[in-house]
Amino acid sequence: MIITQRVEQNIDIVEISGRLLMADVEEARNSLKAIIQEGSGTLVLDLSQLSFIDSSGCGVLISALKSIRAREGRIGLCALTRNVRALLELTRVIELFSVFASTEVAMAAFSRQPQ
Amino acid sequence: MSTAEIPATATQTTASSRPISVLLIDDQLIVCEAVRRMLADEADIQFHYCRDPTDAIDQANAIAPTVILQDLEMPELDGLTLIKFFRANPSTREIPLIVLSTKEDATVKAEAFLIGANDYLVKLPDRLEMLARVRYHSKGYIAQLERNEAYRKLAESQRQLAAEVGEAAKYVTSLLPGKLSQGPVRIDWRFLPSTQLGGDSFGYYWLDADHFAIYLLDVSGHGVGSSLMSVSALNVLRSQSLPNTDFRDPGQVLRGLNTAFAEELHDNKYFTIWYGVFRQSTRQLSFSGGGHPPALLFNGAQRQKSALTPLVSTEPMIGIMPDILFTSQTVELGPAAKLFLYSDGVYEIKLASGEMWQFDEFEEFLCSAPTDAPVMDQLLGHIQELQGSEQLDDDFSMMEIDFFNDITHE
């Protein structure tokens, strides 16, 4: 798993690539928590390069959701691969998130609705 | 025998640093005195000497020096033999040993090193060199002792932790209901808690003469904390202690749990649950799922793909959002029906190759496994083979439930 972060138009864009499994959970959770605490309050997760996620990885997304809610921010998931979408649908976690086809679509949507 | 400790001046030690302790074995008093003088001004060095080589091992055992200085030529006991004794004696085996000899002979040096000496000085060396070598060897040995001590404490705390986890696993197992081998609902199950405890628990019971409740839950994370939370939820279900909740209505039960545990489930904790109620008179199974993998229903009791209906969760996990409206769904069961209820630990398997087993493959396994042995045992064996180890990373919890028709309570 690799996490990279950039800021565009005052939106935090975080790409999680590779696989998000139990062994990665602590690092991923802490990274996202720090980004959310110090960030703009709008977080776009680019999952286009995330090939696989398990239940504990799913927990990382839920933690991020809780953290962003705690500061009344917004979060969007983008470009879900087949495996990631399958698990999020199976667990109904997908219903908790705004899901976008790409980061561009997400950014356009969030930019239209400033906080 | 003549031994003595000559305290170094104003020796001070802190809790984190042991003092350097030198034991000199030499029959010549003049040498002992010369070495004592070399070390006398060093506040961090304690000096002991022993002039009788036959008493050297006992003295070393009692003093536990951080470095031994030893002569090679002594009456009664050959110096090389004494080195062998030091190396054979468990409590002095690792203590650095510096030979102090009058001989500047390569063969003797080589032999001394061969049998376990760590250094060789021709006596009497310069004071600065003596101090440097004593400090160098002692500090290495003290660091080794501290590493060993830290390792021992770590091993002990891990042992205690494993014992506590083992106790917690026993406790969870003791709360699980007995298998049902008679009656209209028959249940066999397997529960293998992982070494870390995965937070799984499950239960089932007759709510009344017509309604049978079945549930399995999995608290996020691992460890005793997850397990205690799991037991807490299990107790709420067993004692039916949710306010304004009809336990025959799965949606109401999950709503009640989500409200009840909203406060308790903080940080990164939540749980997935599948809760179903079988109504015998109508052969209807109503269920609600909170973020849980689907229960797999085979209508017709045979494990065939054509008869498979996944009873997919209706809503996400318990403890994430307070205002989720959990709903119930209902399916009709045929004259004979088989249901598998399990947690993610039975299919989220990291293969020996590093790849992950897929949920589809788990489903396929259940549909195609031979019928001559319990499928849960076959599955367990299969995933142990897939991951190349018997040790599971997560709890293995699974129930095989058979619903029979036209059988009265036996």
Detailed description of the structure:
The complex is a heterodimer of chains A (115) and B (410). Chain A is of the alpha/beta class. Chain A has one domain: 2-Layer Sandwich (Transcription Regulator spoIIAA), CATH 3.30.750. Chain A is built from 4 helices and 6 strands; from the N terminus they run ββαββαβαβα. In chain A, strands 1, 2, 3, 4, 5 and 6 form a 6-stranded mixed beta sheet that branches. In chain A, α1 links the parallel β2 (11-20) and β3. Chain B is α+β, with helices and mostly antiparallel strands. Chain B folds into 2 domains: 3-148, Rossmann fold; 178-404, 4-Layer Sandwich (Phosphatase 2c, domain 1), CATH 3.60.40. Chain B is built from 9 helices and 16 strands. Chain B has helices at residues 29-39, 56-63, 79-88, 106-114, 127-175, 224-238, 250-260, 359-368, 375-387, and strands spanning 3-6, 20-25, 45-50, 67-71, 97-101, 119-122, 185-192, 200-206, 211-219, 271-279, 284-290, 295-299, 308-311, 329-332, 336-342, 396-404. Chain B has a 6-stranded mixed beta sheet with strand order 1-3-2-4-5-6, sandwiched between helices. In chain B, α5 (127-175) packs parallel to α6. Chain B is elongated, with a radius of gyration of 35 Å. Chain B starts with a strand and ends in a 6-residue tail after the last strand. Classes of the chains: A alpha/beta (115), B alpha+beta (410). The A-B interface holds A 19, 21-22, 29, 52, 54-56, 59, 62-63, 65-66, 86-87, 90-93, 95-96 and B 220-221, 268, 270, 272, 289-294, 312-317, 320-321, 344, 348, 350, 356, 359, 393.
